[in-house]
Amino acid sequence: MLIAMLVVDILALIILFFIKKKISEKKFNNIVQRIFTWFIIIILFLLGSINRIYMLMLFGLISILSFKEFLQFAYIKYDNELKLYNLTVNLIFYIGIYFKNTYILLILFLFICLKFYKRGFIIFAFFITTYLIGSISYIDDLNFIINYLILIELNDVFQYISGNILGKRKITPKISPNKTVEGLIGGIILTTLTATLLKNFVNINFQVKFIPYICLIGFIGDVFISALKRKVNLKDSGTLLLGHGGILDRVDSLIFTAPIILLIFKL
Predict the structure, then answer these.
(1) How many CB atoms lie within 10 A of CB 218?
(2) Could you tell me if 241 and 248 are in contact, meaning their C-beta atoms sit under 8 angstroms apart?
(3) CA 109/CA 138 separation, integer angstroms
(4) Cβ-based burial of 263 (10 A; exposed 0-12, middle 13-18, buried ≥19)
(5) Nearest-5° angle of CA 222, CA 122, CA 59?
(6) Which of 5, 161, 188, 198 could lock onto 215 through a cystine, CB 3.0 to 4.6 A?
(7) Are 212 and 192 spatial neighbours (Cβ–Cβ below 8 Å)?
(8) SS3 for 130?
(9) CA 5 vs CA 15, 79, 169, 196: distances in Å
């Protein structure tokens, strides 16, 4: 599926240059940035799909960068001490994930709680960006991880398209005014339909009955990060991903869906 997405990304860039004169320069540049960023993301996950160690390294990087962005929601300075703890915690966490040693993970979280018991938001940040986002990397089947990640991203795209075409009723007007009931429902329907078609015609092992719940929980993760950004008056969580914002802007749907996907894998 990643190769198919890479082909689609390249085709989108070619088509964009054909219609360049029909859109504004600002919009053209923004779309080019988005396509380029998707190209980099797809390449990174292609590398991650080589073996489990590469996948853990990729998720470790995501957790480290996400933690840095998450701190700004409480105006916490990312100083050298936190940089060291961020690297150390994530190194130990993903070693524990690799060996599937839940004792290491529990002891590590206990250490985090004892170390930062007076700074609760830092504990919360580690829980969100390491334990929740990283939970999906506990899965051995790399194709399973990739397929569900693609489906989650497709859900975001389907919600955006459905909302732009059909959206009338705002669902979170004070947090994210562009999100609509029609966008949410359209995303759920189209993502479930896509999963069904891929399961029947491409033989991808999707648990279709769980897809609507994954879409809904992914939406909640998106709204959760949007609420935190609005609290500190931020449009994006960062600037690392051109055209997309920060790491959290791209993985927000994964925050609460990652443990659900792990649970589905275990069923």
Answers:
(1) 27
(2) no
(3) 16
(4) exposed
(5) 55
(6) 188
(7) yes
(8) helix
(9) 15, 38, 31, 18
Buried residues in 192-207 as b, exposed as e (16+ CB within 10 A):
bebbeebbeeeebebe
Length of the chain: 267
Tokens of 9: 């990304």
CB atoms within 10 A of CB 150: 19
DSSP conformational letter for 241: B
Question: What Cα–Cα distance (Å) separates residue 203 from each residue in 59, 115, 149, 206?
Answer: 26, 47, 17, 9
93, 62 contact by CB (below 8 A): no
Q: Are 63 and 126 in contact (CB under 8 A)?
A: no
The closest of 203, 182, 179, 143 to 252, measured between CA atoms, is: 179
CA atoms within 13 A on the CB side of 133: 28
The CB density around residue 30, as the number of other CB atoms within 10 Å, is 14
Gap between the Cα atoms of 256 and 215, Å rounded? 10
Task: Report d(CA 235, CA 240) in Å as an integer.
Answer: 14
Mean pLDDT, the chain, rounded, equals 90
The amino acid occupying position 197 is L
Structure tokens at 37: 């960023």
CB 31 within 8 A of CB 243: yes
Hey, how many other C-beta atoms are within 10 angstroms of the C-beta on 51? 10
Beta bridge partners of 170: 180
CB-count burial class (<10 Å; 0-12, 13-18, 19+) for 25: exposed
pLDDT tens-place string over residues 193-245? 999 999 998 888 899 999 999 999 999 999 999 999 999 998 888 888 777 78
